């Protein structure tokens, strides 16, 4: 007969990717977790993981078993957490998101969720990898990545705006020429400015430039700051110009601390998605997260 703890150890290894990580998550010793896995593999009759030098890679049978049991085990754990009402900690919800979008748009919407929240900030590709390996329950993604195991729900649209310090303005003749479809003079003027970027490859600026001027920008950043709030502050202080999400600039524009330099006829926008594992679509935490974010 299969012991429930064997399943818990198997799920922990699947999510953590290592026996040591699973042992830390379960507050068990590594030998105990290894013993649970060996017993489960003996019961199944075939390996559930390939033993790589630094990672446990699920086999096809391991993936199949995970999908078969994970919802049931999580349900049992949630039931266990509700026993002795008021004495147990609320269930844990681990989410990944872009730092600035979380701070500006999500924080107040998530405070009402009846869970303990663990947040992880990073790039979408890294967060999605953690989601696929069970280290997160949900991710706010800036793009849809191909995955058979994940579902993506459209959450929001962010628009990007070209901003400068309040003391700087684009010469009126250049704006008028751009309105007539003659954008080269405007492009040349913008190229001559000091640019502040999130990264040396001009990630947000490059997208804005490609859509508005149909070519890659030819300049390099005068200042690289891997923090959008810091970029906004630097622009306000007159260090240069940049392209930033509108939700980050709205209050500064209204207060006159930033100036909107130019609005293209077609807004430069990006879609944001809520990503979660297909097998978790009926999980109470995911349902509550959907309600909280879409309300």
From TrEMBL:
HTH lysR-type domain sequence ranges: 2-59
Source organism superkingdom: Bacteria
Family membership noted in the UniProt record: Belongs to the LysR transcriptional regulatory family.
Coiled coil feature spans: none
Protein name (database record): LysR family transcriptional regulator
Transmembrane intervals: none
InterPro entries: LysR_HTH_N, LysR_subst-bd, WH-like_DNA-bd_sf, WH_DNA-bd_sf
GO molecular function, one term: DNA-binding transcription factor activity
CDD domains linked to this entry: PBP2_LTTR_substrate
Statement: the UniProt record of this protein carries the keyword DNA-binding: yes
Keywords noted in UniProt: DNA-binding, Transcription, Transcription regulation
Keyword Cell division annotated: no
């Amino acid at each position: 007969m299969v012991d429930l703890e064997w399943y818990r150890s198997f799920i922990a290894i699947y999510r953590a990717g290592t026996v040591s990580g699973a042992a830390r998550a379960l507050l068990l010793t590594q030998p105990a977790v290894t013993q649970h896995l060996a017993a489960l593999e003996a019961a199944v009759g075939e390996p559930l993981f390939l033993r790589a030098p630094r990672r446990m890679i699920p086999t096809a049978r391991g993936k199949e078993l995970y999908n078969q049991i994970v919802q049931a085990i999580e349900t049992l754990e949630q039931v266990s957490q509700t026993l002795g009402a008021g004495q147990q900690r609320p269930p844990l919800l681990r989410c990944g998101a872009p730092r600035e979008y979380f701070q500006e748009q999500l924080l107040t919407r998530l405070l009402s969720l009846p869970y303990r929240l663990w947040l992880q900030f990073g790039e979408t590709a890294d967060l999605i990898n953690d989601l696929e390996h069970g280290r997160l329950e949900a991710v706010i993604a800036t793009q849809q990545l191909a995955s058979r195991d994940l579902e993506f729900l459209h959450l929001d649209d962010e628009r990007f705006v070209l901003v400068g310090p309040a003391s700087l303005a684009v010469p009126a003749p250049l704006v008028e020429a751009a309105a007539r479809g003659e954008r080269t003079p405007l492009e040349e003027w913008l190229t001559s400015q000091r640019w502040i970027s999130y990264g040396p490859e001009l990630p947000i600026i490059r997208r804005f430039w490609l859509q508005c001027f149909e070519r890659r920008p030819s300049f390099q950043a005068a200042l690289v700051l891997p923090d959008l709030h810091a970029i906004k502050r630097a622009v306000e202080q007159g260090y240069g110009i940049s392209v930033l999400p509108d939700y980050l600039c709205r209050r500064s524009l209204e207060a006159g601390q930033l100036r909107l330099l130019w609005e293209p006829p077609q807004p430069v926008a990006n879609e944001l998605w809520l990503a979660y594992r297909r097998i978790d679509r009926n999980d109470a935490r995911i349902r509550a997260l959907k309600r909280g974010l879409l309300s």
